[in-house]
Write a structure and sequence with these properties.
This protein starts with a strand and ends in an 11-residue tail after the last strand. It has a single domain, classed as Alpha-Beta Plaits. The chain is built from two helices and four strands. Helices cover 26% and strands 36% of the residues.
Length: 84
């Protein structure tokens, strides 16, 4: 699993966040997505083989700009896990 943090330009309200989340969720391999118009970013948790270009394309088709993206490994922590 990996975590992708994207800068998304043009989100102005909660409905914009919902539109971005809905189209990103439809991309095969995406497990979880969360957007913030205040921060201007979207965080995607996805399988390692997810097609990043499809995520960018889905957001762009809605009229939003996609800026810098940062990818890092995602490690799910359980209820009793401790950060090391």
């Amino acid at each position: 699993m990996k975590k992708i943090t994207l800068e998304v330009e043009g989100m102005r309200c909660g409905m914009c966040e919902t539109h971005v989340n809905d189209v990103v969720r439809r991309v095969e391999g995406v497990k979880k997505v969360s957007s913030s118009h205040a921060k201007g970013m979207t965080v995607v948790i996805a399988q390692d083989d997810v097609n990043f270009a499809l995520i960018q394309e889905a957001i762009a088709k809605q009229g939003y700009g996609v800026g810098k993206a940062v990818t890092e490994p995602y490690i799910k922590l359980g209820l009793f896990s401790r950060k090391r």
